[in-house]
Amino acid sequence: MIETVTPEPQAPRYDFRAAEPFWQQAWDKGGCFAVADVPADGRPKYYVLEMFPYPSGKIHMGHVRNYTLGDVVARYRRARGYNVLHPMGWDAFGLPAENAARERRTHPAAWTWANIRAMRAELQRMGLSIDWSREFATCQPEYYGHQQRLFLDFLAAGLVERRESWVNWDPVDGTVLANEQVIDGRGWRSGALIEKKKLSQWFFKITRFAPELLAALGELDRWPERVRLMQANWIGRSEGARIRFPLTTALAGFEDIEVYTTRPDTLFGMSFLALAPEHPLALSLAESNPEAAAFIAECRRLGTTAEAIETTEKRGFPTGLTVRHPFLPGRTVPVWIANFVLMEYGTGAIFGCPAHDQRDWDFATAYGLPILPVVSPAQGKMPETEAYTGPGTLTNSGFLDGLEVDAAKRAAIERLAEMGWGRGETNWRLRDWGISRQRYWGCPIPIIHCASCGAVPVPAGQLPVVLPDDVTFDLPGNPLDHHPTWKHVPCPRCTAPATRETDTCDTFVDSSWYFARFCAPHADSPVSREATDYWMPVDQYIGGIEHAILHLLYARFFTRAMQATGQISVAEPFAGLFTQGMVTHESYRGADGRWLYPTEIERRTDGTAFVAGTDEPVTIGRIEAMSKSKRNTIDPGAIIDRYGADTARWFILSDNPPERDMEWTEAGVAGAYRFTQRLYRLAEGVAAAHPGAADASGDGSAAARRLRRTTHRTIAAVTEALESFSFNVAVARLYELAGAMADAEKDAAAAPEDAALAVARLEALEMLTRLAAPMMPHLAEAMNALIARDSAVLVTDQPWPTFDPALTAAETVTIAVQVMGKLRGTVVFPPGTPAAEVIAAAEAEQNVARLLEGRRIVKRVHVPDRIVNFVLAS
């Protein structure tokens, strides 16, 4: 997109630099957004929450969009009479702070709190209707101490356990990552290749809730369908069979290998059995086989997720072992160790049917293993260069021949059960949530390790377990391991010398229950049951689609765990979810390929771009999501300095439907600024012509009636748009109302004696002011101050306007006139005109009259306000 540099705004009539801080102070002074827990007046509650930010130091345009959307909802619901909770906090733990401490030789807490102060000031400049009295940061002991209490409650309820497991180890960040935090085999923050490592880890037993987490998705009808689908796929319920394959030669401790499969119908096409590198049998073989041990070590350097395995070359190691086939007496099948088999899924072993599984096909092709088709495609021929995974009929499969795939699955499971070789089983892709992280800046896990007593919970009276301040980052690994005193404590049971758990919680734990804490942030317990009974669930949650699996699934688990331990009464945390799109911008590169910020370039009149102040040409790249790496970011603070917060808010809302990506352009924001000035000029004109409040009665002149109809239709349209998150539609309707008001200004100049029009103009301004208030709250307050009867009454405290249905109804309707069912003309009447009058006019319509001339009308059909049809004699 080519655009020219927009000059600085000149001589504004509406001085946002003075108005915005003034009205923010007025809201604070009036306590407008401090919310009562249970109001005495019986107002319904509405809990609006945007995903709280990580305090990185500066807000970005993604923040502006997210919090603007939430603020519109909060202000709108407040005007509709709801008791609105709209809080803010900080997701403050995490590796960036620890990395900053290492790089800048500062403390993570100092870096974090400096960033919070900066970001809070920036967010407050946006004019958000937030109850700041509820603010907290997850790095405060007052917060994470209660999180430790929840951990111990979950432990007592059997929802936490410690066990050894293979983990995703990030060698750069020096910590464990959950499967969801590994992207394409690399750490989600560091980008380092992930390694497999066996460690003792603490786990939340999220799998305990897998069935209800899946089933409840069907009840979340105010969630985006694609988010529900993503969660369903991640939970991953599958129906299949657990099959026992006896080894032809038993080894010490191993007589058979168990396999879970969703395709028991393809057993007759089996040509190999593959073990995960971490399978106990594979590890046992590696103890005496150096080649097996070397292969397993190589596999550990690969990614551990299903996504990474899909893209890696399929490799294997032949063990020399064989197993017996359940349905083919006398047939044996070779056993391999394979890099594409996950220990975390099923049993850590699979049977390979290359003809009908692509990974098996790739593996069999690489090693020359047989490919035996057993499913004949329902249509077409069997492919020759890839696996066939579609529907069909069983063939080459003995007793299964002729059955459709689903029927063959059932028959195979029945036969396996009869033979004692297997059984039907439901399996889940979801795995327990490993929360242990080997870092300092996180919530300490409240456990003490004693040589005699084992893992002992920290007594409730000793909570919170507070992080030590005097840590150093000069050694690799976890600073808590190197601290000289912090971890050394007596055992709470036997008083013998013991050590604290030095792992801290995955930061996703911190964000899995903060919404409940906001209900009563100063309570002595993790949550106030009275407060959560009133406020929960969150009525409208807003955030990015990138959190569809990680954060949202963990929050759903945590809420169920809190319900199971008596902390909370609801099972689902978020009744409504909205995922906004990205904010995008052009990207720019200098002649040497370096990325440039938009502020570093200048455009010429011919559309070309150069590095500012030079003749170095700039390549204008594609429009893509704003990112620090490509420097196509816009500083919200600079936009607010130049144009004001309301302009930024208005442009954010006006460009696209909020669920879609939006492009940030200088021309667009400049246009939004001009509109704020236009509205204020309109308000000044109306206020000067007709001071005082509107008392619209009677129809008055045609111009007055026209403006009143537009006003009330706008009220109806904006209300409907805000209810459905169609904020760009609401913006468009307000543009139209402003246009109608400008036309009415001309009408008033031509007819200054038209008192009805003066009243209609004032009514239109009052309604426009209130309708725009959720979107441009500062400007709305300034406009309201020009016309308010009581200058002490803020527009923020005024109720949402209502429309007169009589004024929103159509003034006329166009009625189709048919002859023998074919459209021959139209007539226009006010709605509800008597049938006789409509039919008479229809008969007189020129084209219709010509067709009716000399013909006998058998029947006249009238559908009110829609159709007249004449049926003629044959």
Short descriptors:
874 residues, 27 helices, four-stranded parallel beta sheet, disordered N terminus, globular, alpha+beta
Q: What does the main sheet amount to?
A: 6 strands, mixed
Specify the overall morphology: globular
Which structural class do the helices and strands define? alpha+beta
Instruction: Tell me the number of strands.
Output: 35
Indicate the low-confidence ranges by residue numbers: 1-9
Can you walk through the features of this model?
This protein is an alpha+beta fold. The chain has 27 helices and 35 strands. The strands form 10 sheets. Strands 26, 27, 28, 29, 30 and 31 form a 6-stranded mixed beta sheet that branches. A 4-stranded parallel beta sheet has the order 2-1-24-25, covered by helices on one side. A 4-stranded antiparallel beta sheet has the order 4-3-7-17. A hairpin with a 3-residue loop joins strand 19 (447-450) and strand 20 (454-457). The two termini are 63 Å apart.
Spell out the blueprint of helices and strands:
Blueprint: H1 16-30, E1 45-50, H2 61-79, E2 83-85, H3 95-104, H4 108-125, H5 141-156, E3 160-170, E4 175-177, E5 182-183, E6 186-187, E7 195-204, H6 210-215, H7 225-235, E8 237-251, E9 254-261, E10 272-275, H8 280-288, H9 290-299, H10 306-311, E11 316-324, E12 332-338, E13 349-352, H11 358-367, E14 375-377, E15 392-394, H12 405-419, E16 422-428, E17 433-434, E18 436-437, E19 447-450, E20 454-457, H13 479-482, E21 488-490, E22 497-500, E23 504-505, H14 507-510, H15 514-517, H16 529-535, E24 540-544, H17 550-564, E25 577-580, E26 583-589, E27 595-596, E28 601-603, E29 609-611, E30 617-625, H18 636-643, H19 645-654, E31 662-663, H20 666-689, H21 702-723, H22 727-750, H23 755-772, H24 777-787, H25 805-808, E32 813-819, E33 822-829, H26 835-844, H27 846-852, E34 857-863, E35 867-872
Parallel strand pairs: 1-2, 1-24, 10-12, 24-25, 26-31, 32-35
Antiparallel strand pairs: 3-4, 3-7, 5-6, 7-17, 8-9, 8-16, 10-13, 11-12, 14-15, 18-23, 19-20, 19-22, 21-22, 26-27, 26-30, 28-29, 29-30, 32-33, 34-35
